Amino acid sequence: MQLLNPDIVRVEPRTLGENIAAFSLDVETDYATGRDEALSQIERFIGLMAELQVPWTAFVEGRFFETRRPLCRLLLDRGVDVQLHCYDHGEPGDTPAALERSAAVYEDFCGRKPAGYRAHTYRLTQSIFETLRRLGFQWDSSLMRAYAQGGNRHPKFLQGDYLIFDGQLHEFPIATWKGLPVALNHTHVLLAKRPGELVLRSLFGPTRLVTYNFHMTDLVRCSSLRAARRTPTVRLLHRYLWSTHRGDTFDVARRFVRFLRARQYHFLSTNALFERVRSAGDRRDLTGNAQLG
Ligand SMILES: [Zn+2]
Questions:
Q1: How far is ligand 1, taken at its centre, from the CA of residue 16, in Å?
Q2: What's the Cα-to-Cα distance from 194 to each of 130, 185, 242, 247, 255, rounded to whole Å?
Q3: 22 found inside a domain
Q4: Residue 140 alpha carbon to ligand 1 centre in Å
């Protein structure tokens, strides 16, 4: 599996003129087991984001537009920005055919083409990139610039708040702490535990664009982990992650939203962020910085 290669693809870094947080949920079965003990509680997450007044993006497994249509309907009815995740999380990642099928069933269900995509385990491969371009996707939010699963730390990918590939596809990478290649998403905030989070906040702080993602299995405790095919290390990390929480981690999400608000972050769905930077024309001033109008 060849990750995106910046020697083949033209990479243009772009800078935002303000602090923006783009929250998302990767909508998939629990730990790719096919179980839905956590997934079936998605309405609680919808309620949490509504309570916090945070717009967000759902990256939905493509097959759900065939097999879990009431769930997809619920997301659309609640005004969530619905985009595509991989077709089937039980597979190691999308083939061009799988991605094509996802796009087709999405369009059939939603009545429009998908604009954005998130790859399985953040692995944006050369083949997926080419397929996204061919199918007319406008943006992607997969690139993992941290040392983590799916990490792609080529120096050309490490610049800018976001990137444009081949002058066409906007890339909004998963956040890291400023100057520290540790992922800044719900899984990693939970692994840091509260004292670690406070240290990371004060020593590093968030970058201008915080692309922060959740999984239902990070949000609510469930027993699906027992059925998950995981390496012993990952299994241990999941146990550790849950060791200081009872039924859910909603308070950690509330605390992080409060922290970003206090730092004047604007909350946008990823598609709204894309529309915003596109309408600003990804303008660059003489220093190479894009300014949002
Ligand atoms: Zn996923």
A1: 27
A2: 40, 14, 13, 17, 10
A3: yes
A4: 14
